[in-house]
Backbone:
């Protein structure tokens, strides 16, 4: 169980748990065979956690019952477009490989209540305290479990819970946005229609072909190749930072020279220099890694294939690494480090890179593998997953969320730093940085002047009213959910990456 700021434990009482099926009975039951890129992401849970303050008086007819009704009435149509998420994840008895049985078994809809707790009272400076303790359990075989939880202040949260084997961050973002679009308008725009066909993007070649360098980039996900559990669990601290549009622009301007740096490149350069400063003389080199989305990198082929790639719901990312001496990174101006970031990210020929990964997995399906770099061996490495280029549409009729946090729970004993960058749901240009980093690096980022990254607070960063408003909470929200509840669900101490 974790605590909120005032020392109060968060207890979520489950009011109801039910299955919601797709309403289109003409969709034939089938088995979805996952792609080779999907198979690299097994046993990792993924979710997007949306925090909604109590809507302003301009929202007509709002109460928590209206929120629950929106999901009750809208999810069947939503699942017509995202039919695999009404299915179940299973293991093929012959191959031992995961697959999805799309028989319309139903997505879960779980309704809960956090009694006596206001959203503003949660500790948003640490992701675990604000997010994990509101998450409710769901099965390893469930493709989608939606958790809607009311708070005593009149606000609520929505957690879209699934598994990484089914999708990546971009796909999860599009899933949430599609729900909002459908809930508001009843339809999806033509460009928003999802593609679930794994064969439409990449197929393994015959024979599979890949380079020696790619083969060397992976290692079996085996305890013999990982650090011990105590080292992995106690080497890092969690932080949730924000950076506003003006701060991002100043950083981008400082990182630009002849060729303007993007905001991701500028922030990566800033983090790389901070990492080098912390490493100092402890090591000769330090590294940065990036999860790169293939949708913006695969530009060859006919227009129809490019359209399929853009709307693809599945895993379509790869991992690239840059390495440099600590002293060089410390010496370089920010613009030179940003240029080094750009070169590392732009260097691969991505069409061939993805094809090679697909071919490599084809020959290694019977064992789980992981990129060697993210195990945390050799020189220190900080990995960046930038989700800020695609913004969630979180308004399904009650206003945008104050924050939509993508999370993933890693099962491996990884000992590398990790940051995840995502944009705020509104249009003010705010970015959030979810960090799992060494205490020395967190201290350096928090002591840096001018302060680039600021700890997320309820009032300043999210616009939530102060915790004192609990005295003015809507007490009816506590009473109306008493019937049919089960024992409170308590926070599990799991690590997020």
Residues:
């Amino acid at each position: 169980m974790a605590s909120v700021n005032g020392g109060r434990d968060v207890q979520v009482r489950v009011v109801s748990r039910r299955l919601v099926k797709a309403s289109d009975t003409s969709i034939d039951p089938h088995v979805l065979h996952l792609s080779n890129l999907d198979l690299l992401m097994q046993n990792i849970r993924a979710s997007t956690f949306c925090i909604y303050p109590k809507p302003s008086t301009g929202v007509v007819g709002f109460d928590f019952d209206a929120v629950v009704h929106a999901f009750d009435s809208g999810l069947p149509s939503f699942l017509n477009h995202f039919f695999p998420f009404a299915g179940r994840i299973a293991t093929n008895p012959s191959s031992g490989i995961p697959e999805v049985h799309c028989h319309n078994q139903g997505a879960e809809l779980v309704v809960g209540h956090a009694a006596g707790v206001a959203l503003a009272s949660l500790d948003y400076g640490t992701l675990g305290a604000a997010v994990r303790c509101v998450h409710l359990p769901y099965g390893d075989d469930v493709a989608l479990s939606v958790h809607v939880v009311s708070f005593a202040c009149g606000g609520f949260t929505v957690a879209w819970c699934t598994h990484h084997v089914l999708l990546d961050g971009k796909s999860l973002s599009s899933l949430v946005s599609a729900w909002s679009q459908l809930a508001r308008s009843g339809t999806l725009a033509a460009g928003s229609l999802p593609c679930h066909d794994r064969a439409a993007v990449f197929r393994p070649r015959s024979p599979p072909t890949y380079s020696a360098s790619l083969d060397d980039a992976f290692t079996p996900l085996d305890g013999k190749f990982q650090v011990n559990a105590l080292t992995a669990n106690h080497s890092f601290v969690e932080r949730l930072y924000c950076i506003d549009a003006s701060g991002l622009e100043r950083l981008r301007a400082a990182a630009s020279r002849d060729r303007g740096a993007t905001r991701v490149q500028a922030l990566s350069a800033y983090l790389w220099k901070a990492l080098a400063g912390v490493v100092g003389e402890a090591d000769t080199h330090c590294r940065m890694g990036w999860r790169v989305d293939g949708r913006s990198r695969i530009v060859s082929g006919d227009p129809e294939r490019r359209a399929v790639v853009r709307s693809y719901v599945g895993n379509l990312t790869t991992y690239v690494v840059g390495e440099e001496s600590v002293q060089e990174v410390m010496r370089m101006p920010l613009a030179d480090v940003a240029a080094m970031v750009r070169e590392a990210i732009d260097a691969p020929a991505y069409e061939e890179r993805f094809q090679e990964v697909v071919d490599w997995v084809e020959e290694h399906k019977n064992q789980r593998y992981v990129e060697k770099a993210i195990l945390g061996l050799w020189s220190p490495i900080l990995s960046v997953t930038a989700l800020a280029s695609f913004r969630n549409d979180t308004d399904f009729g009650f206003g945008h969320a104050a924050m939509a946090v993508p999370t993933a729970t890693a099962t491996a004993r990884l000992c590398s730093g990790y940051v995840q960058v995502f944009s705020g749901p509104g249009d003010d240009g705010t970015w959030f940085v979810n960090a799992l980093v060494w205490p020395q690096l967190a201290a350096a980022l928090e002591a840096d002047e001018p302060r680039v990254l600021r700890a997320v607070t309820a009032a300043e960063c999210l616009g939530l009213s102060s915790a004192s408003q609990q005295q003015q909470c809507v007490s009816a929200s506590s009473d109306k959910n008493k019937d049919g509840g089960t024992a409170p669900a308590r926070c599990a101490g799991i690590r997020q990456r």
